[in-house]
Every structure is written in C-alpha cells, then in structure tokens.
Amino acid sequence: MAAIAVRHMRHPETARAAVATLFVLAAALPAGRCTAVNSKTDSFATLAEARQAGAIAGGWVPDGLPPGSREIRAAHVPGTSARWGIVNFPPAEADALRAILEPAEVPLDGRRCNMPARIEWWPTEMRGTINGERLAATGIHGYRSRKGSLIFAVNWNQGRAYYWSE
User: Are both 84 and 17 inside the same structural domain?
Assistant: First the structure.
C-alpha cells in the first residue's frame, strides 16, 4: 500500500511523509486500544449457577442478591475492578436486594458508565454520560452498594437491576 502511495505522489518528500505517517498510525493503534477489549462476559440462568461458577467469589456478581435471581449477565475486565451486570429478580424478593444497597437514592444524571462497546447486552441509555431524567421516566432508581464501589440502577416494578463499578 505504501508503494502505491509513493508512486502516485508527485513529490518524493510528500510520499515519504505519507509513508511515515502510515507507519506511525499503525504503530499507535495497539497503544490506543481500550483495555476493555479484554473484558470477559458470563451468563447464568440462576444465582446458584453464578455461585457455582465462582462469579460471586470472584466479585463479578454481587453477594447478597435475592435468592430467586435469574438471567444474570456479568462482565469484567480481568485484573481490574471494572465490572458490569444485569440481574432479574422476583419483585417479591426486593427486600433482599435493598439489604445490599444504601437506603438513600443517588442521582444517576451525569454519571459516567464507561462500558466496553463489545458488551452488547448493556442498554444504550446507560452507556457514557447518563441522562438521569430519561432513566427515571422508565422507573429506574439509582443506589450505591453498601459494600464495594458499585452503582445500582433498579427498576423495582420490573424486578431488574443493573450494576457497575464506579
């Protein structure tokens, strides 16, 4: 490709500069990649399955979720504290989830959730800078976990919670 660029340029200095630019860009690509490319995702049908797989012990799925939690998706970047997850729970077991959350709601507006783009199951409304007003209109409330540094966005009526590391 560089040879084609050189042949089609009238000035050799311009051609050399173009080739040098291509090499610099090619060398910079690996350095500019997001570390989250190395993220690992898991899906669990039940909380018991997540526990058996070591996701709770590993910290990717929070401990203390309602016992009937199901359809759990978890992602993390190995070697870091970065993690994200979705869990569905029976609304009748909401008190178990409330027990692992600080009682006061926290505003979600303006918070950043820098999630790897390759994790397709995460809602687009919760990527990047969050519009708290839009989320509140869908019934989502924000909370901080009692342990660790997780933020939870919970829809109590639907029995669905999203969590991510801050």
Answer: no
Residues 109 and 62 in one domain: yes
Number of H helices and E strands in the chain, helices first, is 5, 8
Q: 144: closest CA among 159, 160, 161?
A: 161
Q: Assign 96 to helix, strand or coil.
A: helix
Element housing 116 (H / E): none
Q: What angle do CA 120, 94, 131 make, to 5 degrees?
A: 45
Boundaries of domain holding 27: 2-32
Q: What is the pLDDT of residues 5-54, one digit of tens each?
A: 444 455 556 545 544 443 433 333 333 334 446 889 999 999 999 999 99
Host H or E run for residue 58: none
Q: Residue 122 in contact with residue 131, Cβ under 8 Å?
A: no
Residue 21: its pLDDT value, please? 44
Return the percent helix, strand and coil in the chain, to nearest 5.
35, 25, 40
Same domain, 74 and 133: yes
Indicate yes or no: pTM above 0.70.
Answer: yes
Taking the alpha carbons of 88, 90, 95, 99 in that order, is the dihedral positive or negative? Answer: negative
